[in-house]
Amino acid sequence: MSARLVRLLGRGFLHALLVVVALVWLVPTFGLFLTSLRSAPDNNSGGWWTVFTRPAQLTLDNYENLVKNESIFDGFVNTVLIAVPSTLLVVGIAALAAYAFAWLEFPGRDWLFLGVVALLVVPVQIGLIPLSELFGTLGIMGTVTGVVLFHVAFGLPFAIFLLRNFFAAIPASLLEAARIDGGRDWTIFFRVILPLGLPAIASLGIFQFLWVWNDLLIALIFADRDSQPLTVALQQQTRSFASSVDVISAGSFLSLIVPLAVFFAFQRYFVQGVLAGSVK
Amino acid sequence: MANPVTKGAPARPAAHRGRAGLTRAGFLLPALVLLGLLVVYPIGYTAWRSLFDADGTAFVGLDNYAEMFTDGATYTALRNNVVWVVVAPSVITVLGLVFAVLTERVRWGTAFKTIMFMPMAISFLAAGVIFTLVYDHAPEKGVLNAIATGVHDTWEAPSPYPGARPREGGPLKASGGGAEASARPGEAALLPLVAVSPETQDGLRAAAPAAPEPGALTGTVWVDFAPGGAGEPGRIDPGEKGMKGVVVQAVAGGKVVASATTGPDGTFRLAGVSGDAQIRLPAENFAPRYGGVEWLGPGLVTPSIIGAYVWMWAGFAMVLIGAGLAAIDRDVLEAARTDGASEFQVFRKITVPMLAPVLVVVVVTLVINVMKIFDLVYVLAPGPVQQDASVLALQMYVRSFGGSDSDQGLGSAIAIVLFLLVLPAMIFNIRRFRRENT
To answer: Which of A228, B12, B44, B349 has its CA 20 to 30 A from that of B107?
Structure first.
């Protein structure tokens, strides 16, 4: 009887604890959302929680102004222009290489792949100074192209690693069947590898997209005023945070709603990517 | 029929092998070119560049590496990096382990995991903005300080008149945060104060002079400021408010001999005072309001930013460890429970050891990522304390691309140090990979 009571109390405590923790994890983002729905004067005179007592403060003005705000709007467009090609290129180039590493025989294959594994953890900081010089020489410093190239290069090791491991697990009999039917390497790649590798490709694509979408450091260095993505545009606004809390809160919410949408739409692939991609 | 070449042909003709070789190169070439030119070559270049001075002209040997320890800001960054690498991964892993185990026991565990995992998807910039709001020093704006002041004021009632002070030229003299005036029993004292906020005055009633009383100190404490400025200093004018709830003490010979609290009209009566005495309004009446914790001040900024990082990454640890838990054989746990082991014993003696490989992966991943932490510090640390909060990656950015006094020699050295720090992880990866593939 008393043991059951203890267990019951324990369960109540467990639920209460988890509810509190869940709130701690939700409230900060929720606070940003409510902040973005209030005018700058309201935000400067009181916290977002005052909307519970004075709901009349809620307004969509900040989002309306965002569309008119050139640096934020251009930043959003640039973010798309950087994130989409980076993702497609990484997925495409890595899929080709991963297939070669998994299924084609050539001298030095295993050593080359070990090299790719070694590159998994190379910090991007290694590339900042040399590539800013190299891109300067090539005339792509401060352009979307430069930012994309950087992301593609430093995204490749993980991408190849992830896809190669997945491709290698495809049953050899399927590839053999295609070969016997007269398929060449290219045909096998498109007809067998890509369709069967789709889950891994989706994981990788989501991961790469989020990584690039969320990047600040690389864009800070390799983009200029005309090619800067949303993160950089917002970062510059934060330097004068108090005066532009309306722009920053709404802009930040805009910048995080896309990753969140991707996260909820493809949660399964996202988690798979995380599971496969640890120790990057 | 269309493809007679491959049919049953164990060895392909030589010409074909050549073409196959080309195809294979075609698969691999783009990746190898990009990796070679944009990742491998920069490693060598950065290492080489780190041996030269700021201009890149004079060879300075290992001076840039020595400078990391002598240059104050870079050394601070190095120290902070150590704090980050020690604290963040361990806190995150422990939280991840605890919540992975706990969520297995509730039906809405999946929902909980989703909530905790969500911050993984957003950028450090957005997280930085989110936590700038959370950590805002002003209690009426920052949610954390709103809670802190709320809790504080529940335990310790806030002073009734923060910031109020004696009227200049009046009988009261400021002393030690409070105020004092000399007084004689049998006379009603007038104790004028100013600097009481209008909101506080709203709740007050009109002041009234106290009745003189032999053998007692009486008087009035009031706001000596009539709206519109019509009043005369030192006199109770119409419209001036009495200050209720002020603690008044009589001090004789350095000791408190009587104590009272003012009434709604600001009057007080200290009985049993025979000779001359001092009237004291202690400092606790005017103590400034508790302002909360300075989360992003120089002292707490690194722990606060680590807190934001934990918020972002705890879900990662939890999901990874959760996947590891799911793979544990339930029968082993059940057997232990049947043998009479307590839940905690099962956790300590079976679950954790069986999870060890997963835990290692989680910690190593976190260490690698924490080592390179940049954005969150850059966005969250306010300008004046950025140096106090700096980390290696931030210092590398500031020193390499920070404008006029930039030094890409030192920047390269920092980058190489970051690279060397992840080398053990690189070796760990390679060994793990070779083990799994032989």
So the answer is: B349
